[in-house]
Structure formats: structure tokens, C-alpha cells
Amino acid sequence: MTILLVPNLNKPQAQAVCLRAAMALYRYGAQVLLEDTLQQSCPIQGAEYLPIDQAMEKCDAIVTIGGDGTILRAARDSLSYQKPLLGINLGRMGFLATCEVGELDKKLGCLVRGEYMADRRMLLEAVVCQPDKPSVTLTALNEVVLFKGLRTQTMGLEVFCDETPVSCYRGDGVVLATPTGSTAYSLSAGGPILDASISGILFTPICAHSLQNPPMVFSARRRLRVQVESETDEPVYLAADGHYPPLAISPQSRLELGKAAQEITLVQFSQADQFEAIDKKLIRKITL
After folding, report:
1. Of 29, 83, 102, 159, which one has the greatest count of Cβ atoms within 10 A?
2. Residues 39, 44, 50, 56, CA torsion sign
3. What is the CA radius of gyration of the chain?
4. φ/ψ bin of 132: left (φ > 0), alpha (ψ from -120 to 50), beta (otherwise)
């Protein structure tokens, strides 16, 4: 088996954990790949260094070393290759990561032996339509966020489901999330936690200036449209999975969103991985 290691070297432990992961994979008989740009900053004896597209094509699985942001970036970069992703958590929360550093040896062994479950997660596809500009298409594993750059002013949003009006309000924006992303920005904005095994689209207003705009969950079969009605020339921004810099779009734009045709596969070792993460990384962390 060939494993591509994707360390986030902005994390202090990442280089040491990457070396430890490589040594464990060697013991289990796996081959190790890294991106060629890391050959100087993360030298590992016996590893093969390739351009990232070649590495993703050649590998059987991808192991990220960092936080959820590292997994989201790897998911975006590997989308056309459809390789399973396993995250070793070095972040604060790590909801998407199913391996902690202390579990590294055991779970990498399970990965190499194929003793894991392929957890298929839906993606969102968002098409941004602007006046007199080409449309832009984005994909997201967690969420697509539409927000106002100047937070001292609100913007108007009209929301349609299969062309039927379902909401109209003023506020700071909206989070459109997958069940996977329900524990991310949407949760902070007051949205519910969804079982990641279901298929749906979560709509969560951000600071709505109204008492009648609760979060809503739509079937993944639905198509949503969000119409922006900004009264100023200040740009509105769109971010998919926290990608920086966000996309600046003009006022009077619209966002068309639905379930993407592609999916992402996360490596899971238990059917209860999501709920164990909620218990250990959210509930206990807050109450301790």
C-alpha cells in the first residue's frame, strides 16, 4: 500500500509526527509519498517525493497531519482523485480527524491492513452568478458562507428552495452547510448538529435581524438559491470551507447551491466516530 503524507508544517509538532507516521508505515510494509516541495523542509529517508498531482494519482490513501483545515485543503486538492482521507489531529478540535497522535501506530496499522470503514461524505456545489461577470463554481465539504465585508451594515437575503420562497431577512449573511459541516461555523451561528451519515443541506442565518428565521434543513435533492440585496456598493464575500482569501462578489449577485455529484471518503474506524468526537472534543472540552 502507498500512503501520501500531507503535513501542515505550520503546526509545531507536524514534522516530528510526520516522521513518526512514516516509520510506522514502513513497519507495516507500506510505501510513503510526500509532495516534492517538502523534500528540504521535511526530509524522510526512504520516502518518495513527487509533484502533488502525481503523488495523489499514485497513492492508495492520504494521511493528513494537522487540524480540520488541513483535511479540508487535502479534500479539495484530491477531489478528482477520489482517495480515502485519514486525519492525524494536531488541531484544537479536529472533528474530521479520526486519529489522535497517541493512536497513530495502531490506526495506521489498521489503514494499511484495510481494517477501516469508507465513510462517504456529501459535498456542496455552489455556483455564483454576478451581473456582467462569468459564473464561478465552488465545492465544499463543510460549508459555503456568504457574508458582508462591512459588518456595521446588514444585507438583505432572499432564499428560495426549488424556486419557492422560503425565507427573507436582513443580517450578516448565511451559512449553507453539509451534515459534516454542522459542527463547524453553522454550530457557532446557532445551527443544529446533524448526523453526518444523512444527506441534507443546512441553512443557518448569521445574526438575522428577525425573530422568525430559524435554521432549516433541506433534502439534498433540493436546489437552493440565495439572492443578495445589498443597498451599498460594499462587496459581499463568499468562502467555501474557510478558503482564504474569500471570493469578493458584487451586490445583487445570486448563489445557486445543491449537492455535488462527487463525494469525499473519510477513513473511519467506528460507526460512532462522529459522536465520540462531539463528546470528547466539544462537550467534555467545554465542561472541564
Report:
1. 159
2. negative
3. 20
4. left
pLDDT in tens, 219-249: 999 999 999 986 667 778 999 999 889 999 8
Instruction: Cell 448526523: give the residue.
Output: 195
Query: pLDDT tens-digit profile of 14-48?
Result: 999 999 999 999 999 999 999 999 999 999 999 99
Predicted pLDDT at 57: 97
Q: Residue holding cell 516541495?
A: 37
What is the CA angle 179-256-173, rounded to 5?
A: 70
| Spatial contact of 190 and 175, defined as CB atoms under 8 Å apart | no
User: Which of these, 174, 127, 131, lies nearest to 154 by C-alpha position?
Assistant: 174
For the whole model, what pTM was predicted? 0.90
Q: What are phi and psi of 162, to 5 degrees?
A: 50, 45
CA distance 97 to 116: 14
| 232 and 208 Cβ atoms separated by less than 8 Å | no
Cell of 212: 422568525
Contact 265, 84 (CB under 8 A): yes
Q: Which residues pair with 201 in a beta bridge?
A: 218
Query: Which one from 36, 53, 68, 233 is the annotated catalytic residue?
Result: 68
C-alpha to C-alpha distance for 103 and 101, rounded to whole angstroms:
5
Is 132 an annotated catalytic residue?
Answer: no
